[in-house]
Amino acid sequence: MSMTLDIRPSCLCTERLTAAAKRWRFLKRIRQFDQMDFQFALWQMVNLVVAPRKVYRNFVTRKQSKDQFARDDPAFLVLLSAFLCLSSALITVVLRLGFVGFIKFLLWSVFVDCIGAGMITATVMWAVTNAFFRADRQHDVEWGYSFDIHLNASFAFLVFIHIIQPILYYPLLSLQGFVGSFFACTLYLVACSYYLYITFLGYSSVPFLKGTRKLLYLFPFLLLLYCVTVGVGWNVSRAVMNFYHYRVM
After folding, report:
1. Is residue 108 classed exposed, middle or buried when 0-12, 13-18 and 19+ CB atoms within 10 A define those classes?
2. Are 125 and 199 in contact (CB under 8 A)?
3. What is the pLDDT of residues 114-142, one digit of tens each?
4. Quick one: where is this thing mainly located (predicted)?
Protein backbone atom coordinates (compact mmCIF):
# COMPACT_ATOMS: atom_id res chain seq x y z
CA MET A 1 0.00 0.00 0.00
CA SER A 2 1.47 3.36 -1.01
CA MET A 3 1.43 6.42 1.17
CA THR A 4 0.69 9.90 -0.17
CA LEU A 5 2.24 12.87 1.58
CA ASP A 6 -0.36 15.45 2.50
CA ILE A 7 1.03 18.88 1.64
CA ARG A 8 -2.07 20.80 2.65
CA PRO A 9 -1.45 23.29 5.46
CA SER A 10 -2.64 22.09 8.85
CA CYS A 11 -2.82 25.62 10.23
CA LEU A 12 -6.15 27.36 10.72
CA CYS A 13 -5.48 30.08 8.13
CA THR A 14 -8.41 30.67 5.87
CA GLU A 15 -6.39 32.43 3.19
CA ARG A 16 -3.03 31.61 1.74
CA LEU A 17 -0.44 34.35 1.99
CA THR A 18 0.78 35.74 -1.31
CA ALA A 19 4.46 35.50 -2.21
CA ALA A 20 4.86 39.23 -1.58
CA ALA A 21 3.28 38.90 1.87
CA LYS A 22 5.59 36.03 2.74
CA ARG A 23 8.64 38.06 1.66
CA TRP A 24 7.49 41.07 3.68
CA ARG A 25 6.98 38.93 6.77
CA PHE A 26 10.44 37.41 6.31
CA LEU A 27 12.09 40.84 5.93
CA LYS A 28 10.33 42.17 9.02
CA ARG A 29 11.78 39.33 11.10
CA ILE A 30 15.37 40.17 10.10
CA ARG A 31 15.39 42.93 12.74
CA GLN A 32 13.91 40.68 15.43
CA PHE A 33 16.97 38.77 16.62
CA ASP A 34 15.26 37.63 19.80
CA GLN A 35 12.72 35.70 17.71
CA MET A 36 15.27 33.89 15.54
CA ASP A 37 16.14 30.27 16.21
CA PHE A 38 19.92 30.42 15.78
CA GLN A 39 20.42 27.03 17.40
CA PHE A 40 18.26 25.33 14.77
CA ALA A 41 19.90 27.32 11.95
CA LEU A 42 23.31 26.17 13.19
CA TRP A 43 22.02 22.59 13.31
CA GLN A 44 20.98 22.97 9.66
CA MET A 45 24.43 24.24 8.68
CA VAL A 46 26.23 21.36 10.36
CA ASN A 47 23.92 18.77 8.83
CA LEU A 48 24.17 20.27 5.35
CA VAL A 49 27.76 19.02 5.45
CA VAL A 50 27.43 15.77 7.42
CA ALA A 51 23.83 14.63 6.77
CA PRO A 52 21.98 16.87 4.27
CA ARG A 53 18.92 14.60 4.04
CA LYS A 54 17.95 15.50 7.61
CA VAL A 55 17.66 19.19 6.72
CA TYR A 56 14.95 18.74 4.09
CA ARG A 57 12.66 16.79 6.36
CA ASN A 58 12.06 20.09 8.14
CA PHE A 59 11.12 21.84 4.89
CA VAL A 60 8.38 19.26 4.27
CA THR A 61 7.11 19.69 7.83
CA ARG A 62 7.00 23.47 7.33
CA LYS A 63 4.86 23.03 4.21
CA GLN A 64 2.36 20.93 6.17
CA SER A 65 2.14 23.38 9.08
CA LYS A 66 2.73 26.82 7.50
CA ASP A 67 1.81 26.32 3.83
CA GLN A 68 5.28 27.15 2.53
CA PHE A 69 8.48 25.26 1.84
CA ALA A 70 10.69 28.34 2.05
CA ARG A 71 12.22 29.43 5.34
CA ASP A 72 10.21 31.87 7.44
CA ASP A 73 13.04 32.40 9.93
CA PRO A 74 15.98 34.56 8.72
CA ALA A 75 18.39 33.05 11.29
CA PHE A 76 20.07 30.90 8.61
CA LEU A 77 20.64 33.96 6.42
CA VAL A 78 22.13 35.89 9.35
CA LEU A 79 24.50 33.03 10.22
CA LEU A 80 25.44 32.65 6.55
CA SER A 81 26.35 36.35 6.46
CA ALA A 82 28.54 35.87 9.55
CA PHE A 83 30.14 32.84 7.90
CA LEU A 84 30.94 34.90 4.80
CA CYS A 85 32.56 37.57 6.97
CA LEU A 86 34.80 35.02 8.70
CA SER A 87 35.67 33.13 5.53
CA SER A 88 36.40 36.38 3.69
CA ALA A 89 38.73 37.38 6.52
CA LEU A 90 40.53 34.03 6.22
CA ILE A 91 41.03 34.42 2.46
CA THR A 92 42.14 38.02 3.00
CA VAL A 93 44.87 36.87 5.39
CA VAL A 94 46.04 34.07 3.08
CA LEU A 95 46.17 36.32 0.01
CA ARG A 96 47.41 39.38 1.97
CA LEU A 97 44.68 41.62 0.59
CA GLY A 98 44.68 44.16 3.42
CA PHE A 99 41.68 45.80 5.07
CA VAL A 100 40.39 47.54 1.94
CA GLY A 101 40.79 44.29 0.04
CA PHE A 102 38.83 42.50 2.76
CA ILE A 103 35.91 44.94 2.39
CA LYS A 104 35.92 44.56 -1.39
CA PHE A 105 36.15 40.79 -1.19
CA LEU A 106 33.32 40.62 1.35
CA LEU A 107 31.08 42.79 -0.84
CA TRP A 108 31.85 40.61 -3.86
CA SER A 109 31.13 37.45 -1.85
CA VAL A 110 27.82 38.67 -0.43
CA PHE A 111 26.28 40.67 -3.26
CA VAL A 112 27.72 39.00 -6.36
CA ASP A 113 28.74 35.43 -5.50
CA CYS A 114 25.93 34.73 -3.03
CA ILE A 115 22.94 37.00 -3.70
CA GLY A 116 23.47 37.85 -7.38
CA ALA A 117 24.42 34.37 -8.56
CA GLY A 118 21.83 32.92 -6.18
CA MET A 119 18.98 34.95 -7.64
CA ILE A 120 19.94 33.92 -11.18
CA THR A 121 20.33 30.25 -10.25
CA ALA A 122 17.12 30.20 -8.21
CA THR A 123 15.15 31.84 -11.03
CA VAL A 124 16.43 29.36 -13.61
CA MET A 125 15.73 26.33 -11.38
CA TRP A 126 12.34 27.73 -10.34
CA ALA A 127 11.34 28.12 -14.01
CA VAL A 128 12.72 24.72 -15.06
CA THR A 129 11.17 22.71 -12.23
CA ASN A 130 7.77 24.36 -12.61
CA ALA A 131 7.82 23.90 -16.38
CA PHE A 132 9.12 20.34 -16.67
CA PHE A 133 8.93 18.51 -13.33
CA ARG A 134 5.48 19.30 -11.93
CA ALA A 135 3.13 16.33 -11.78
CA ASP A 136 0.36 18.36 -10.15
CA ARG A 137 -0.39 21.68 -11.85
CA GLN A 138 -2.37 22.88 -8.82
CA HIS A 139 0.90 23.37 -6.96
CA ASP A 140 4.09 25.13 -7.91
CA VAL A 141 7.58 25.52 -6.49
CA GLU A 142 8.02 28.76 -4.56
CA TRP A 143 10.81 31.03 -5.79
CA GLY A 144 11.85 31.52 -2.18
CA TYR A 145 12.29 27.77 -1.77
CA SER A 146 14.49 27.64 -4.88
CA PHE A 147 16.60 30.40 -3.35
CA ASP A 148 16.77 28.47 -0.06
CA ILE A 149 18.00 25.39 -1.93
CA HIS A 150 20.73 27.48 -3.52
CA LEU A 151 21.76 28.89 -0.13
CA ASN A 152 21.85 25.41 1.38
CA ALA A 153 23.98 24.04 -1.45
CA SER A 154 26.18 27.16 -1.49
CA PHE A 155 26.97 26.86 2.20
CA ALA A 156 28.29 23.32 1.80
CA PHE A 157 30.20 24.42 -1.30
CA LEU A 158 31.73 27.40 0.51
CA VAL A 159 32.90 25.26 3.42
CA PHE A 160 35.31 23.64 0.97
CA ILE A 161 36.14 26.70 -1.15
CA HIS A 162 36.25 29.45 1.50
CA ILE A 163 37.55 27.46 4.47
CA ILE A 164 39.39 24.30 3.42
CA GLN A 165 40.89 25.82 0.26
CA PRO A 166 42.67 28.80 1.89
CA ILE A 167 43.91 26.61 4.76
CA LEU A 168 45.44 24.04 2.39
CA TYR A 169 46.38 26.46 -0.37
CA TYR A 170 50.06 27.13 0.29
CA PRO A 171 51.05 23.79 1.83
CA LEU A 172 49.29 21.62 -0.79
CA LEU A 173 46.93 23.08 -3.37
CA SER A 174 49.30 25.62 -4.90
CA LEU A 175 52.05 23.06 -5.59
CA GLN A 176 53.32 22.87 -9.14
CA GLY A 177 52.75 19.78 -11.27
CA PHE A 178 50.41 16.83 -10.92
CA VAL A 179 50.19 16.80 -7.10
CA GLY A 180 48.83 20.33 -6.78
CA SER A 181 46.48 19.91 -9.74
CA PHE A 182 45.16 16.58 -8.45
CA PHE A 183 44.33 17.80 -4.95
CA ALA A 184 42.94 21.12 -6.17
CA CYS A 185 40.66 19.50 -8.74
CA THR A 186 39.59 16.86 -6.22
CA LEU A 187 38.62 19.55 -3.73
CA TYR A 188 36.44 21.25 -6.34
CA LEU A 189 34.96 17.92 -7.41
CA VAL A 190 33.84 17.29 -3.83
CA ALA A 191 32.52 20.84 -3.41
CA CYS A 192 30.55 20.76 -6.69
CA SER A 193 29.24 17.28 -5.86
CA TYR A 194 27.89 18.60 -2.57
CA TYR A 195 26.20 21.49 -4.38
CA LEU A 196 24.60 19.20 -6.95
CA TYR A 197 23.51 16.56 -4.42
CA ILE A 198 21.97 19.08 -2.00
CA THR A 199 20.17 20.75 -4.90
CA PHE A 200 18.78 17.36 -5.92
CA LEU A 201 17.66 16.64 -2.34
CA GLY A 202 15.88 19.98 -2.20
CA TYR A 203 13.74 19.42 -5.27
CA SER A 204 13.23 15.69 -4.69
CA SER A 205 11.69 16.58 -1.29
CA VAL A 206 8.81 18.37 -3.04
CA PRO A 207 6.07 15.71 -3.38
CA PHE A 208 4.45 17.14 -6.52
CA LEU A 209 7.72 17.17 -8.50
CA LYS A 210 8.54 14.06 -10.51
CA GLY A 211 11.66 13.06 -12.41
CA THR A 212 14.02 15.07 -10.23
CA ARG A 213 16.58 12.27 -10.49
CA LYS A 214 17.42 13.75 -13.88
CA LEU A 215 19.34 16.43 -11.95
CA LEU A 216 21.82 13.70 -11.01
CA TYR A 217 22.60 13.18 -14.69
CA LEU A 218 25.02 16.09 -14.32
CA PHE A 219 27.36 13.94 -12.21
CA PRO A 220 28.92 12.11 -15.21
CA PHE A 221 29.70 15.47 -16.85
CA LEU A 222 31.22 16.65 -13.56
CA LEU A 223 33.42 13.56 -13.42
CA LEU A 224 34.41 14.01 -17.06
CA LEU A 225 35.38 17.63 -16.41
CA TYR A 226 37.40 16.49 -13.40
CA CYS A 227 39.31 13.92 -15.44
CA VAL A 228 40.04 16.47 -18.17
CA THR A 229 41.31 19.15 -15.77
CA VAL A 230 43.55 16.67 -13.93
CA GLY A 231 44.72 15.22 -17.23
CA VAL A 232 45.81 18.58 -18.63
CA GLY A 233 47.35 19.58 -15.30
CA TRP A 234 45.18 22.66 -14.73
CA ASN A 235 45.27 23.79 -11.11
CA VAL A 236 41.77 25.18 -10.61
CA SER A 237 42.52 26.27 -7.04
CA ARG A 238 45.43 28.45 -8.12
CA ALA A 239 43.29 29.95 -10.89
CA VAL A 240 40.44 30.76 -8.49
CA MET A 241 42.70 32.23 -5.81
CA ASN A 242 44.41 34.40 -8.44
CA PHE A 243 40.97 35.53 -9.60
CA TYR A 244 40.03 36.38 -6.01
CA HIS A 245 43.19 38.45 -5.70
CA TYR A 246 43.00 40.41 -8.91
CA ARG A 247 39.30 41.24 -8.77
CA VAL A 248 39.75 43.24 -5.56
CA MET A 249 43.25 44.69 -6.08
Report:
1. middle
2. yes
3. 999 999 999 999 999 999 999 888 888 88
4. membrane
